[in-house]
Amino acid sequence: MVRRFWPIVMLVLLQPASAWAVDPTRRITQYAHTAWRMQDGAFNSTPAAIVQTPDGYIWIGTEDGIVQFDGVRFVRWTPGNGQRLPTSEVFRLRTTRDGSVWISAVGSLSRWKEHTLTTFATGTRSGPDGLAEDSEGTLWLGLNGAPSENGPLCRVLTTGLQCVGAADGIPSFNAMSVVADRNGAIWVGGDTLLVRWARGAPTVFRLPGLAGNAGMGGIMALATSPEGTVWVGVGKAGLGLQRVIDGRLQAFDTPAIRGSSLVVTTLHVDREGSIWIGTYDRGVYRIYGERVDHFDRTNGLSGDNVTDLTEDREGNVWVVTADGIDRFADTPMSSVSVAEGLCSTEASSVLASRDGSIWTGGDGALTRVRENSVTCFRSGHELPGSQVTSLFEDHAGRLWVGLDRGLWVYDRGRFQPITRRDARPIGLVTGIAEDAEQRIWIAATGPPRMLMRVEGLSVREEVHEPPMPRRIAGDPTGGLWVGTVNGDLAHVRDGQAVVHLFEHPEGAVLTQLLPDADGSVIGATSYGLIGWRQGKALTLGEKNGLPCEQVVAITFDRRGDLWLYMNCALGVLKHADLQAWKQNPGISVTIRIFDALDGVRPKAAAFVAAARSADGRLWFANTGGLQVINPERLVRNTTPPPVHIEQVVADRIAYEAQRTVRLPPLTRDLQIDYVGLSFVAPQKVRFRFRLDGRDEAWQEPGSRRQAFYSDLRPGTYRFRVIASNNDGIWNEQGASLEIVIAPAWYQTRAFVVMTIIVSAMILWVAYRLRMRQLARALNARFDERLIERTRMARDLHDTLLQTLQGTKMVADTALDRPDDAPALVRALKQVSTWIGQASEEGRSAVNALRTSTTEGNDLAEAFRRAIEDGRRQSAIGASIAVTGSPREMHPVVRDEVYRIGYEAIRNAYTHSHANHLEITLGYGRDLTLRVADDGIGMDPPTAEHGRDGHFGLPGMRERASRIGATLSMTSTPGAGTAVVVTVPGRAIFRRTSSIRFVGKLRSVFSGTEETE
Fold first, then answer.
1. Using CA atoms, how far apart are residues 168 and 309, in angstroms rounded to an integer?
2. Residue 702 has pLDDT above 80, yes or no
3. Is the pLDDT of residue 811 over 90?
4. Under a CB-based contact definition with an 8 Å cutoff, are residues 68 and 55 in contact?
5. Which residues lie closer than 8 Å to 771 by C-beta, 6 or more apart?
6. What is the pTM of this model?
7. Fewer CB atoms inside 10 Å of the end CB: C or N, the chain?
């Protein structure tokens, strides 16, 4: 047995977690470490300085200016408004309590405050190499290569620099570092001296190794610890790390480190009092008390030449090297591996014993950590085997260890083997448990796989039911819980086995059983949790709220909460939710998740991989070592992240994010970039944003750092964004800005008002025009009716009324001579004849009104019916001739042609006294109708204008005019009369043009359009 004292490992494993940001009891390798290297393109120039500015950004000073970092992106910083730094090479960056950021460059010192850059000339060829703020808020700087009239130490006033030097008792030297102690004194270190300046009185400290070494390897860094110690970092081997104790400089040397051998470049004291030391070629060291830790390129540091150190407001430690920058952040869960003191590269099982020891087994070694020591039991030496499998502590405090294919008991410093009666090997021990009667049981591979009861140092009983046991656990109410190879659960008591079958996928694996005091049991499997309580099977998988279903290990904390070590994360199920699930296995539960960003590195272990130590911490074994978390001291990041809106991009044009951003008209695509400055785990920063005037509720973009809009109308909007850190602490105030989108000329209010006025005027004019149109159409309809009434009046006057008038005259004559019987008879005969004629004339007028050719397309047939009507008045012979092929005609025009022809035929039968009437209907390009008789004819004036009081001929001419036809009448007294009507084919025949023409004509007749 080999026992070694490792105080660092003791602190790592046994100390509780700190309530501050970076736990000093952890080793640097246990922090979450991220490196951004120049070779990866993080920056284009060598970094030299770092600081967190009051607005929350991280600034990195480089040889080519300042780079601003928000946790995700590196962006070159520029002052804006035409301001610029005197030079791009930045040496130092510091902040002061008034919100200023001080920038040290070649020959100048600049202050950035409230968006204003102020520069102070130092009169040196190099920059101020030290900046410190005293208790009164005054900034002090050290000058390297100060002019002879100035001293090496200066205070910054509003009017410039006020320096102290030889006249004030300070020898001449090149200052390289400055710090203010808690008593208000200013310490300045240089190439040859260390000076304390307090109340105008200097105290000079000389380092023998620096005398005569002007300009080479001087005091590069100074820092003060909370207890008042001044730490001195010297850039020269042999002097290295010093500290001022009781007014004297003393080298810091410990068994873990010889501080004088270091070449120190920078120092920083964190809020826990740890001293961080940056070196020229060995990376970074950290001292906490008398304990020293180291981290360099071999551990993943971006480089071994460290130039600056700082700590942000969340407690993250930042390291600047010549090759990049590094961030160290604390996490809820930390890892313990060979680098932190384990004796094997893997951990196949873990056990927390009652005496406070942590046991872990692996390949070739068994590790025990207890109090101030770590003990390694190695294969071939203290350990009687090579592969540790299961671990268990019985009621007597003895350690049971599965080794290779056997079982051993470690008691009183000795390993004793457990044997079988037939001397066969026990096999691979996959589980060890103790029942309520304090009997030891093991699950072993045999062969065959079986349960074995151990008594003393030998196997007393072998149980083959249930078959194929894999994991076992004692039931506090009696008996033994057994998990089988195929994923089922069984209970064994008094030699009787009851198997509980579960529905599980093929190849399911049960990794651990965890009994509870209420007699229930919970099993970790590859398909979630299973359990058994009061005769009821329990299952919990992704559908119930697990983030993934493969559960590696489980354990209770001291509050009764169940912790699940899964292949994707570490989760915790609160005690109340656990009990609710036991009552109702189908419910969904809430699991708090810790993932890789919280330090979780879940990997499966071969055997029982979870334990709770006496101090309440939880331990989980995996193939990479151990992981530990303290549920009772989870450090919560209570710093809400500062939120900034960085820029507005409208249609690919970037606008500075001021209080009000004015955008041009017709802006279509809008992008708003924002940040939440939390550096513990930037990937876990969550955002909510809202655009007042557009969004009705907060939008949830997750970790996305842009908002997009593409449908904004002209107007004024207010964009608001808030953010939460890695622990869900929200900055409810957030950031906001006003966005004004100008309207285009046609989107202005004046244009809208003018549009309304013009539209109203147009509608009023249209209404007036429509009213006039309707009035004209109504008048046209009235005119049409008047024309038709006039025609009817003419017809009645020329026929029926004249006949009736003649009849009345005959009757009146007869009544004047009542005694002349023969004359009375003749008069009555004449009256009878004229009354019949009047009837025929009335019937003809009615037929002329009723008869229409709209029921057919045959004008010839219509004219034959007109001839038959005329024969009732006269026995004139008539004939009809049709030339050309009949064509489809528009009914309105066709009807007008018919009425003209009907009037000509009726006039011939009534007035011509002809012997023969000839009607010719010709279909050609145009339609031609000719009605000719051989009667008595008419004189030219009558043929031209008709007889006074008669309206037949004028009516025919009016109808012809309405349909665009021409009508000619030729008549000679004694030689008959000929009426010829010619209708243009485009007006009567069914063609496109005629349709338009006749459509217009129809509208005229229907009264919907003004007549021409």
1. 32
2. yes
3. no
4. no
5. none
6. 0.76
7. C
Residue 890 CB partners (closer than 8 Å, separation 6+): 987, 988, 989, 990, 994, 995, 998, 1001
The answer to whether the beta carbons of residues 997 and 1005 sit under 8 Å apart is no
Mean pLDDT for the chain overall: 87
Backbone torsion region of residue 644, taken as left when φ is above 0, otherwise alpha when ψ lies between -120 and 50, otherwise beta? beta
User: For the chain, what percent of residues have pLDDT higher than 70?
Assistant: 89
Q: Where is 335: in which H helix or E strand?
A: strand 333-336
Among 356, 354, 336, 355, which Cα is nearest to 346's?
336
d(CA 482, CA 467): 10
Q: Is the pLDDT of residue 6 over 50?
A: no
Q: Where are the domains of the chain?
A: 344-633, 643-742, 854-1012
Buried b (16+ CB within 10 A) or exposed e, 531-547: bbbeeeebbbeeebbbe
CATH value of 344-633 in 3.40.1280.10, 3.40.50.450, 2.40.50.140, 2.130.10.10: 2.130.10.10
C-alpha closest to that of 270 among 53, 24, 467:
24
Indicate the fold that domain 854-1012 takes in CATH. Heat Shock Protein 90 (3.30.565)
Q: Rg for the chain (alpha carbons), in Å?
A: 57
Please name every residue paired with 969 in a beta bridge, in sequence order, or none if there are none. Answer: 979
Q: What is the mean pLDDT of residues 183-191?
A: 91
447 cis-preceded (ω within 30 degrees of 0): yes
Q: Which residues contact 56 (CB under 8 A, 6 or more apart)?
A: 313, 641, 642, 644, 677
**Structure-token pair, residue 607:** 């055997």
- Residue 10 has a pLDDT of 37
Structure tokens at 695: 């969004």
Query: What per-residue confidence (pLDDT) applies to 613?
Result: 94
Helix (H) or strand (E) holding 750: helix 749-796
Q: How far apart are CA 485 and CA 507, in angstroms?
A: 9
Backbone angles phi, psi at 572, to 5 degrees: -130, 130
Q: Is the pLDDT of residue 100 over 60?
A: yes
Sign of the alpha-carbon torsion through 551, 609, 451, 517? negative
Res 1007 pLDDT > 60: no
Can you read off the two tokens belonging to residue 196?
């304390």
- As a whole number of angstroms, the distance between CA 289 and CA 24 comes to 10
Supply angle C-alpha 175, 180, 181, rounded to 5: 130
Measure the CA–CA gap between 173 and 878, rounded to whole angstroms: 146
pLDDT at 922 over 70: yes
CATH fold of the domain at 643-742: Immunoglobulin-like (2.60.40)
Residues near 945 by beta carbon (within 8 Å), at least 6 away in sequence: 953, 954
End-to-end CA distance of the chain: 127
Beta bridge partners of 288: 291
Is residue 787 over pLDDT 80?
Answer: no
CA distances, 996 to each of 471, 774, 1002, 1010, 1011 (Å): 98, 21, 10, 15, 15
pLDDT of residue 1011: 30
Which token pair is 1006?
């229907």
Report the DSSP beta bridge partners of residue 434. 440
- Nearest partner of 34 among 306, 301, 322, 267, judged by Cα: 301
**Whole-number Cα distances in Å, 998 to 866, 892, 893, 986, 994:** 25, 8, 7, 9, 6
- If one counts every other C-beta atom within 10 angstroms of the C-beta of residue 417, the result is 14
Residue 519 structure tokens = 């007699």
pLDDT of 805 reads 65
Least confident of 518-522, 718-722, 732-736: 518-522
The mean pLDDT value for 820-825 works out to 80
Torsion angle defined by CA atoms of residues 796, 797, 800 and 806, in that order, rounded to the nearest 10 degrees: 170
In 3D space, the residue among 487, 481, 453, 454 whose CA is nearest the CA of residue 468 turns out to be: 487
Which one-letter amino acid corresponds to residue 518?
Answer: D
How many Å separate Cα 785 from the centre of its chain? Answer: 75
Flag whether pLDDT at 1005 surpasses 50.
no
